[in-house]
Amino acid sequence: MDNNNKVTTQVIETEVPMGTIHSAALEPYRLRLFVEDEIVRDAELTIGVNHRGIERIMEGLPVEKANSLTEKICGICSNSHIWNSCLTAEKGLEIDIPPRAEYIRIIMGELERLHSHLLYLAHGSEVLGHETFSMRLFYIRETVMELLRMIGGNRVQYGASIIGGVRPRCELDEMRIQKLTEGMDYLEEKIGEFADRFVRDPMVISRISGIGAITKADARRLATTGPTLRATGIEVDLRRDMEQYEPFEFDVITQDTGDIKANLLMRVLEIPESIKIIRQAIKDLPEGKITNRSWEMQDTDIIRSYIEVPRGKLYHSYKIEDGRVRNSIVRTPSITNINTMEFACIGTHITDAQLAVVQCDPCFTCTDRAVQIVDHPLKKIKTV
Amino acid sequence: MNLSLKSYSRARAVHVMLVYTGGCNGCDIEIVNCILSPKYDAEQYKVFLTWNPREADVLVVTGPVTKHVEEPLKAIYEAIPEPKAVVAAGACATMGGVYKNIHGDIPSEEIAGPVEEIIPVAAKIPGCAVRPEDVLSGVVAALPLLLNAK
Amino acid sequence: MDTSMIIISLIAVIGTLIVAFAVSVWLPGIERKFVQARIQQRVGPPISSPGFMAPIKFFFKQVMSPNSPMPKLYNALPLVTLIIVTLILLVTMPQMYFLGAFASIIAVVGLLKIEEIMYMFMGSLSKSVLSVNMPFPDRVKGAKHIDATRSFIEEVSTLRAFRLIAFGSFPLYIALFVPVAMAKSIYLADIVGYQQLNGPILFTVAGVIGAIVYFIGSMILLNEYPFAIMKTKADVIEGPYLEYMSKYRAYTYITRGLLIFVLASLFTTMFIGIPPNILSPGILITIAVAIIFSILMAVMSAFSPVFTFRQFYPVVAATSILGVLAIVASFL
To answer: Is residue C45 in some structural domain?
Structure first.
């Protein structure tokens, strides 16, 4: 089915708003769909409930406290924020990280990618209406959560990275490595079974093929990022450029069609790649200490850092003045994906529109910031 | 113990509604885990999930209540018929969490307060994020308020 | 007719109704615990909770006025639906066959139609807080299309109910005419009598095909997954039932269990030839068919997503063609 990419009727007649509190929305957002005979002609997504003023709170906090605060921005991508925040400080203060700590950070980052992708698949199945698949996926996800609890101390928000390395609690000894290996074997087997079952089910495939499709040109124009971009066929993955990922060998997965089936398959195929990286990290784990405590605080200029998180490109920046953080900016991948979500809804049925929004993996709790509108370099600047 | 048909039936079918009020989503996922994950399965304890306030008995609120969601939360609370109980889950819902209590130079002005400043709370569950086992015991702890109410 | 016969008939009718209510409160629990929970590899609730304890609990909740332009009419509709479903059970009982045309397949089809139209009335009268009236500032300066008419999600559900009435009920009605074609009469008394002489219709070719079409048709009527587009959780949350609370919601729960039982008992009457009658041992077969029906429906619904109209139209078309083939086969 072809996506109706242009709004063909100039006069929109009916609006169906779905509120902040809704069964298909994992976070509070307001979705207004403009429909004609149950086919969506235009869409508007409004966020703003999750704005808690993180950047405002961070102004003036000591650097270590600011790092642990960034973890509380989001519960699903918690490790990404604290990792990137520590990387920013280490880049600015020029601190060397021991290699064993780098490997452990990568293991935690990939475990987070696993749990985030499994949650995406489970939520997508629930919006499809398939409660059984959703429960099976949540059961598989429990293994990853138990591994995170074992290494980090908590299932969600464990704070593994600190400036200079990793917390002493996250040391990997024999028993933990054994459990990690068993966990990876179990996951690989179960996700393989699930993927087989998923692509063979005719009812599910007829529901997701060809719906909510985005072409390559549209994805470039709308500035999509992350797996949603790779599902349209463009191969961009920041992990190829990050120096922490250099010793590891993995493939960058792409799909062609950019519809819901491509997006779901992207995540299903990225899971074995993450398992591959974790296995390599366990095998080649270097010896040594895991924290570098010999560094000094200095004043720096604005430091910028980009990493690749499960949803795309994450950007942190701040400057350090007298041991405190100033002018911090956090820009998450979902803010550029909002336009993609609104665009993907067009031309679909209302029930499919919710699925088209969920396919781009929204995480609006990460995203809600104040936005400064710069009209034109010579005109006034307004702050919202 | 007063075992009338009213209190017996109220204990054998509890309907729970979830409301997300602008938190970090950690507690939300853990509570969804509690209900939809076969490992923790809340249905075996006769706790059913619903998304309709008219059907709910217990309202589970997560997140520090931001200013945009204060009115919707009140509207949903008014829509639930008596007897009802509110359970505040997580550090943000019980005392404002990190956002209300920690700041550098400028405090955040977006938080309308922990849940008990807006609607009356019957049970509080601590944790950041809450553990699924604690969520179930919190919902069960709010039950005596329902069983013997008029 | 002398008094003792009238009294015996009255006892039979009331007894069968009591048996119907008593069995139907356990059916949702059986669906949830023995089938869906087993498939989803979890423990599941006790059998009495979803169908029996939940309505009783709802009776003891506070009654508030629903958000609706005509609250009294809106609140009266579930009881009307319950009465209509009971009437369907009543006209299929053998003690009622003296009613003549009221105990024919036309009466059954008409009552089922009224039951479907109830959803449309409920949907258009329900204006819950969960869609348009949510107090959120979204129509602000710079928003798109501020002057579009806003529609509640229950109104979307009403349109879908209308589509379901228009073509979604074909399979069930075509399947109901297979025994009519074989017995060559629309009166239930004749259909039951034909099967007493020639054996159950279920054991003929036309009967088997008709039974399959009947099963799919009853899944569409009950809005079970995969045909639950009128009340899917993904967009309309609960559809027409959104504003019901306390005892009116209890009536909707009871009606659902009773409707499963009534459809199963209609199947036993039309395809096996055993009408619901407490004075004969055939009532055990009716109860067994009801339990088998709910187990089969739960198995099908646990393994399927929700169909949108893109998949719904072809499935209904294919099932209707199958039904027509069954009627043609019954003439041969």
So the answer is: yes
